[in-house]
Amino acid sequence: MFSVALTEAAQLRPLEPWQAGEFLAHMDRARQTVDPWIPWAGVSTDLETARATLQRYADLAARDAGRLFGIWLDGTLVGGTMFVAFDAQAGTCEIGCWLEPAGQKRGLITMAVRVLIDWAVNTRGIHRVEWRCRTDNTASSAVARRLGMRRDGVLREVHPYKGIRHDLEIWSLLASDGFSSDGPSGPPSNEGSADGSEDGSGA
């Protein structure tokens, strides 16, 4: 219910606190792949912390400040994408993503993120869409390029992970760059209406 079809087998749907058990099972499969790139992968380790992760995004959605969506492939949650930050007044947002190995090499992240960008720019009037990834996350930067984003620069040693500080690339897409959606448009809404390699494992 309330989903956007990415392919015949894959759907993009809201990912909410009541799905914490399914999310935890997904994280258990994905953690080793996702943890270096997505900050909350390593902290969603039991039902309580998984629910807390999803609740944080539910709270952001209630404030129109962020949103979280899952990608289901053949009925199994394999990844997702999110508005890490969303500021309609300023006209800016940041999008991130993650994917477990079972969902890779299918173009799912590119298709899903395209849906979010289309909705942000063409429905909500967002002017600047940002994408941030570690400089060694070449799968994620490849998605940014595929989406027509431009590399603005690098934030040096801004991202700590297991005692090591990593550089982050900043990519952006402006509404004036002329983004157009090739696929389905509008993210799924929990109210029923819109208001790596090929796939990066996180951004």
TrEMBL record:
User: Spans of biased composition, class Low complexity?
Assistant: 179-195
The protein's superkingdom reads Bacteria
* Residue intervals of the N-acetyltransferase domain: 10-171
> Would you indicate the residue range of the signal peptide?
none
InterPro entries in the record? Acyl_CoA_acyltransferase (IPR016181), GNAT_dom (IPR000182), Ribosomal_N-acetyltransferase (IPR051908)
Annotated spans, Disordered: 179-203
Name by which UniProt lists this protein: GNAT family protein
